[in-house]
Amino acid sequence: MTKLFLKRKITTRIANGHPWIFANEVNEVDGDIEPGATVEVYFHDKKFVGRGYANPQSQIVARLLTRDPKEEINEAFFYNRLLDCWNYKKKLGYEENCRLVFGEADFLPALIVDKFNDYFVIQTLSLGMDLWKPAIVSALNRIFSPKGIFERNDVPVRELEGMPQQKGFLSPEFDTNIVINENGLKFHVDILNGQKTGYFLDQQDNRRAIRNIVRDADVLEAFCYTGTFSLHAAHYGAKSVLGLDISENAVAQARKNAELNNLQDVCKFDAVNAFDVLKLWAKEGRQYDVVMLDPPAFTKSRENIQKAITGYKEINLRGMKLVKPGGFLVTASCTNLVQPDLFLQTIEMAAKDARKKLRQVTFQAQASDHPIIWGMENTNYLKFLIVEVR
Q1: Which CATH number goes with the domain that contains 40?
Q2: Please, is 262 exposed, middle or buried when counting C-beta atoms within 10 Å of its C-beta (0-12, 13-18, 19+)?
Q3: Which pairing describes strands 38-42 and 26-30: parallel, antiparallel, or unpaired?
Q4: Are strands 166-169 and 358-364 parallel, antiparallel or unpaired?
Q5: Are 386 and 211 in contact (CB under 8 A)?
Q6: Which ranges of 239-304 would DSSP assign to H, the alpha helix?
Q7: Residue 94 and residue 55 share a domain
Q8: Model confidence at 308, in pLDDT bands (50, 70, 90)?
Q9: How are strands ordered across the β-sheet holding 323-333?
Q10: pLDDT over 80 at 11, yes or no
Q11: Closest alpha carbon to 376 in 386, 385, 365
C-alpha cells in the first residue's frame, strides 16, 4: 500500500483529528498514488496517522477514513460505518427523515446520505468515495431495504476531483416526487430536481423554534424557497403568512405544499426579488409581527466574504425595519465561511444602522443530525437566530 509521509512542520489540525491531508503537507511518497486508491499516512517520524483514500489531482491529496491501524478499508468497513451512523441518529430521535451521513462529521469524508423515509439520496463528492459507491449502496440495501436510492452528484465540486457531474437511479427506478412528514406537516420533495438532495433537512429542528412567536401573528418570509418555514408558521397559528422567492418553480412548489396541508387560505406566496421588495416595503412603512429571512449561501469563496457580510447586513437591516416594535426577526445563514461570531457581529451592525434594540431569543446551529465536530469549521456552517426587535 502506498505510504504518505508528512512534513515535520505541519499544523496541529491533523494530529487533532482533522481527516484532510493537503498536497503541500506531504514530504515523501513511498509508492505510486493511484487516483482513488487506499493509502496510509504517517507523521515525519514514521508514526501511523491513519488510512484513507487519495487523489493526486486534488488539493486534498488524501482523506482519512480511520486512525485505527488494524481497521481495513473494505465493504465491511462501509457497512459498519453506515450502521453506526444510523444507530447514532436514532439515539437522537431521527428515524423518518434525517441526514444519515454528514461527511467528515460522521467520519465518512465527502459522503452525503439523506434519508427521506424509505428513500435515500446520496452524494459522493470525491473520487475515493465515488469508487466505494457500490459498497455504500449495498450497505444501504442491507440495513434499510429501501424503496429507492438516487444519486445527486450534479455538483461542481466533483470536477475538482476530475469527475463528471451526474445524477440518476442507484436502484430500480421510482417516482422521484415523494411526500415526507415533518413536525406534523407534509411536504413534497423533488428528489430529481430539487435543490441539493431535494429538501433542506438541516433546518428541521429550527422550524420548530418559531412555534410560540408566530401565534396570531402577521408573518413575512423572504427567500422562502418551497415554503417550509412559512407553512410551519401557519401550522403554529399565524394569522397570515406571505412567502417571497425569486424562483417561480419554488413558489409553485410552496403553493402545492400549502394545499397539501390545507393552509392555502393562510399562506400566500409571490415570485419576486426579495432584495428589492424588502427595500421598497421598508420605505413604504409596512410592518409585520414576524419577519423571517433564510437566504441561500452568499459565497463559497474566501475572496468574497466581505461581499457576503455586506449582503447579510443589508437584508437584515431591511428586515428589522419591517418588524413592528416588540416583534421578532428570524434570520439564518448557511454560508460556511461566515462563522457564528462574525454572523452575530453582522446582525449587531445592522441593528445599529437600523436604530433598533435586539433581545436574543435563541441562537442555534443546524439540526443535530448534521453533527458538529470541534476543530472542523466546515461542520459548523448553519446559523439560526431569533431576536426581539425594539
Answers
A1: 2.30.130.10
A2: exposed
A3: unpaired
A4: unpaired
A5: no
A6: 248-260, 274-284
A7: no
A8: confident
A9: 267-271, 240-245, 218-222, 288-293, 323-333, 383-389, 358-364
A10: no
A11: 365
pLDDT digits (tens, 9 = 90+) for 85-117: 999 999 999 999 999 999 999 999 999 999 999
**Domain final position from 15, 36, 66:** 66
Identify the CA nearest to 258 among candidates 221, 295, 294. 221
- Based on the fold, state whether residues 60 and 93 are members of the same structural domain: no
Q: Based on the domain organization, do 144 and 269 belong to the same domain? A: no
**Mean pLDDT calculated for residue range 18-43:** 96
Residue 360: closest CA among 213, 143, 220: 213
Backbone angles phi, psi at 343, to 5 degrees: -60, -45
Q: Which domain holds residue 149?
A: 75-177
List all residues 6 or more positions away from 378 whose beta carbon is below 8 Å from its beta carbon: 104, 336
Checking if the pLDDT of 302 tops 80, the result is: no
Domain match, 261 and 352 both:
yes
How do beta strands 48-54 and 38-42 pair?
antiparallel
Q: What is the DSSP letter of 329?
A: E
pLDDT tens-digit map of 155-166: 999 999 999 999
